[in-house]
Sequence to fold (689 residues):
Amino acid sequence: MLTYNKKKIIILLIYISFFITIPIIKNATRLIEKKNQNYENQVFLLEKNLLEANLEFQYLTSPEVLSKKIQENTDINYTNLNLSQIYLNFEDFTSEQKKVTKIPINEQQKK
Amino acid sequence: MNSKKNNKNFIHQNQKSFFFEDFLETNLKHKKLYKYKILEDRLYMLFFVFFSLILVFSISILSISFQKPNLREYKKTNQYFLPLRRDVVDRNGELIARNIDSYHAAIKPNLIKNKELFIINIKLNFPEISLAELKKKLEDKKYFYLKKRLTEDEKNKLWSFGEKGIIIEPFQSRIYPHGQLYSHILGQTDDKNHGISGIEKFFDKELKDHQKIKDPLTLTVDSNIQFLIKTELKKALNDFKANAAGGLLMDVNTGEVLSLVSLPDYNLNIREDISELKYMNQITKGVFELGSVFKTFTLALAIEENILSPETIINNIPNKVQCSKYIIRDIHKFPESLSAEDILIRSSNIGALMIARKIGEKKLKNFLENLGLLKTLDFELEEIGRPLNFKWEKCKLETVSYGHGITTTPLQASAAYASITNGGYTIKPTLQLKKNFEIKNGKKIISTNTSNQINKILRKVVTDKEGTGSFANVFGYDVGGKTGTSKKYNNGNKNINTFISIFPSKEPKYILLIILDDPKGAPQISYNYRGQVVKNISRNEAGWNSVYVAGKIIEKIGPILAINNNDVYNTYVVKKNN
Fold:
C-alpha cells in the first residue's frame, strides 16, 4: 500500500513539476522566438535596403550613366589607354618609374 | 460489513420503541443525509470538471510545446519580398536585370463618394490621364486600372487623396539598370512575369526556379565592352548614315559572346510596340548575303585538301566569267596572275571562283555544312534567323565561293570564322557563362596547320598594301580579318558591309564582327590611310566603313581584353624600353 501511494505521489509530483516548468519554458521560448523574429525582420529590412542601394549603385555606375555624368559635370576629356600604358601590378609600374627617374640623376653626375 | 454497521447506526439512541420510529427525528436525519449526499455529488462533479479542464489545458500546453516554432510566418506579410525571377548578371557580376516591388493603381467606383473632387485631383496630379475616359469608367461602376507601374511619387500622391476607392495593387516588375544596352539580348517579361523574348524567354523556366531564386543567372557578356562597342556603332550610324548596325565580340575557343549589339535598339524599361524591321536583332535574326567573307572558307578548304598552298600562283585569271546567263566580274582590275593568298588579300571574285571549281561542289557543300552555315544555329535566344534554302544548281558553286547566292546570319559566320582560326575546332556560340568549360571540345574540321596559314593570310589582309582591311591595323593587337561588301537582296544598290576580324592573329583569342546596313560615304571623316590623312572620301565599301569602325572599337576594347587576359598581355603588350 505504501509503495503504491509513493508511486502515486511521485507521478503526481512529476506531473505537477511538468505542469509548472512547461509553461515557464514555453514562455521563455516564445520570448526568444519573438526576439528572433525581430532580428529576422531587421535583417530582412537591411537586406531590402541593401538590394535597393545595390540597384541604385548598379544604375548610377552603369557605363552609360557614368559617361553622361562625366560629360555633364567635368571638363576632363578622357582618352583611351594604349597597351604600353597598362601595368598589371604595382611593382611593374614602380620599376618603370624608377627607370625613368634614374636618367636625370646620371646626367647630373656627368655634369 | 458496512451495511450492518449502517443498520445498527440507523436505530437512534433516543428511540423508545423498536417498532415505532420517531419520524420527526428520523426525518430530520434523513433530510440531513440527503443534503450531504447532494453536496458530495456536487463536489465530485466540480472536481471532475476542474480535473477535465486541467487535463485539457495540460494536453494543449504539451502539444504546443512539442510543436516546431514557425519563425518564417512573418514572410507571409506584405513586408517580405521574395522575387519571382532570378537576377541576371554579366560576367563581372554587374546586375543587368532584377525584380522589384511595384504597384498598379486600381479604382473601385462604388467606393468613391465625391467623384467630381476625385476627377479634379486626378486632373491636377496626373494630367496625362484622359479625363473623358476616366469619367466614362467611373460611370460604368466596374473595377478598372487607373495607372499601371506607379513610381514611388505617384503612389504617394494617390495615398494622399485619402480615397477608399483607390486600390494600390502590389506586383513585381522587372527592372533593367542598363536601359537600352542589352535590349537585343535580354528581351522582356509580361505583367505576369513570364519571359516573352530574348534571354528572358529562353531561360524562363530556369529564371523562375525557386530553388535557385537567390543565385543570379550569369551571362558571358561584359557591360563595359558592350557599352564601348555600342557607342562606336552609334557613332557609325550617324557618320555613315546607315539604316542599322551590328557588332559581335566572341571568344574563338569557348564561343562565349562578350558583346552583342544591334542598332537601333530600344529601352527595356519602357513598354513600346516595336514592329519596324530595323529593330530586328541584326546579328542573330538578320539573314544576309555576306559576300567576300566567304572567300576565306573557299581558300581554307583548298589548303586543307592540298589543292594549293597560299603561295601557289594561279595564272590567267580573266576579268569576267560567263556562267550560264550571268556574267561574274571583279570590282577592281587585278593582275592576270595572283597567288592564292593574294586572291583573299585583294578579294578577287574570279580568283575565288577558280579555286572553288578546283575543289568541287560536293566538298564545298560538305565543308559549309560542317561549319554550320546552312542550318539554323542553336543559340540561347528566341530571335534566330534561318538561312534561306537554295539548290546547288548551275553557277551555285561559283557564286557561293565568293559569298553570293548564299545567306546566313552574322552570328553563324562569326562561329565559322572562329572554327577556322582557333585551330580547326567547331564551337557553339553561347550567352550563358559555364564553369569548367572544356576548350576545344568541338569537331575538328581543318588541321591546325591550315588554320595557322589562314590566320597569317587574314593578318595580311589588314597589313598588306593591297589588303582591304588596313584601318583595323591597330598597333599592339595583331589584328587580322576579311571584309565583305554585298548587295542587299531585292533592295537595289543598298550594301551590306561586313568585317570579321580576329586578334591576336598569331593565336586568335577574340573575333569581332561589324556589320553596317546600307552605309553611305562619309566625306567628313579624316581617314589615316597608311600613314597619310585622307579626306573627302565618298566610297562606301566595307574597307571604308566597317573596317574603320572595327579599328576604333579594337582601340577601345583592346586594353580591357588585354588586362583580363594574361596570355595576351604577356605576349602582345608593348613594354617601354627606357
